[in-house]
Amino acid sequence: MELTVNGQTVFAHTGGRAFDPARPPVVLIHGAGMDHTVWSLQSRFLAHHGRSVLAVDLPGHGRSAGEPLPSIEALADWVVALLDAAGAGTAALVGHSMGALVALDTAARHGGRVEAVALLGVAERMPVHPDLLAMARDGDPVAIELVVGWGHGPRGHVGGCRAPGLSLIPGGRRLMGTVRPGVLGVDLAACNAFTRGAEAAEALSCPALFVLGSADRMTPAKAGRALAARVRDARSVLLPATGHMVMTEAPDATIDALADFLRLRRD
Predict the structure, then answer these.
(1) Residues 133 and 107: beta-carbon distance below 8 Å
(2) 3-class DSSP state of 111
(3) CB 68 within 8 A of CB 59
(4) 111 belongs to a structural domain
(5) What is the number of domains present in the chain?
(6) Does a structural domain hold residue 209?
(7) Is the pTM of this model over 0.70?
């Protein structure tokens, strides 16, 4: 599905069913240097179990036009513009990593537009080492190797994909290798600069779900639980032997957590 947001063409995968704003919408927001394909299994499940789905490519990513936005706050405002373009009054937001910060900030500052928020692989702060920031900014392929390697837990380093013949880490390399040079650097800089995590969590007025990997080396589960403790209405799900890429490393468990949180039918 293509939409026009702030004058730019935006692509969103709808999970195999046409988007209908009359059905409760859910927006899936990917992390740094990624696109909508990280949500392949979750988007299809949600679309066939009562939700209208927008698994979006953020500006400058995947099949969406434009330049990457330079801050979490700008991306959060963009999500509201996306809802307007789709004709959706409110939506549930599901975000991973950078996308989780975007979902958190959107819900904190635009609470009237957000029904509920699910945050995967998240922490109050997501600092990025200056050397990695420089490599990502300059398009050094080592940046992708570091992000993909650190982003996966034990199962990702031994294949780990539920689909026969596929492997998580090579898949991650291929996905991030398609991103335009410099985009990963913009994304990581936005994560590094965002300091409002605690303030945003305390401002949430909607229910929040935290889906955390026990083997996450990028946003450790301890940090995710500490952020959840600042939210008035929060629940946490800890996925064992799972790294930062919770939705691809543990897709079924992630679906179960989202289905319970959003009270979806299972037939």
Answers:
(1) no
(2) helix
(3) yes
(4) yes
(5) 1
(6) yes
(7) yes
